[in-house]
Specification:
Layout (H helix, E strand, L loop, with lengths): L7 H15 L6 H8 L3 H7 L3 H23 L6 H15 L6 H11 L11 H8 L1
Length: 130
């Protein structure tokens, strides 16, 4: 197979496509490599395991949303501010980016331990101000 140049974003998008089409249980490093026109070894160079690749895909899926949410959030930190930022972000990204729900479903399937700890969810934020 002739090797093609690709970047990490193309690799993550290929993995995300496999996940959407076939589900988390059917994601293989080999298929991601085939989709970007490279080798399994090239993928493993950046992500040494399927779990590492899934983690990177989830981060990729949520990164743009996070940045937009933070930009829409006002400094007062009230529950209204969080709700407004969430709704503005959702409206701005509807149909354009992967949702947190999609990322969480992926994590539940492949790495449920990643759902523990970390940043608070929007529901936890609302509960804290509730």
């Amino acid at each position: 197979m002739a090797r093609q140049k690709f970047d990490k974003t193309a690799m993550l998008e290929a993995a995300k496509s496999v996940l959407r089409e076939k589900g988390a249980g059917n994601l293989t490093i080999q298929e991601v490599a085939e989709r970007v026109g490279s080798t399994k070894g090239a993928i493993l160079h950046w992500y040494p395991s399927k779990k590492a690749l899934v983690d990177a895909v989830v981060t990729h899926m949520t990164h743009e949303w996070d940045e937009s949410y933070e930009a829409n959030l006002t400094a007062d930190g009230s529950v209204e501010a969080h709700l407004s930022a969430y709704l503005e972000t959702w409206q701005a990204h509807e149909g354009d980016t992967s949702s947190y729900a999609e990322a969480m479903i992926l994590l539940l399937a492949e790495a449920p331990d990643r759902l523990e700890g970390g940043s608070p969810s929007i529901f936890e934020i609302f509960q804290a101000h509730g």
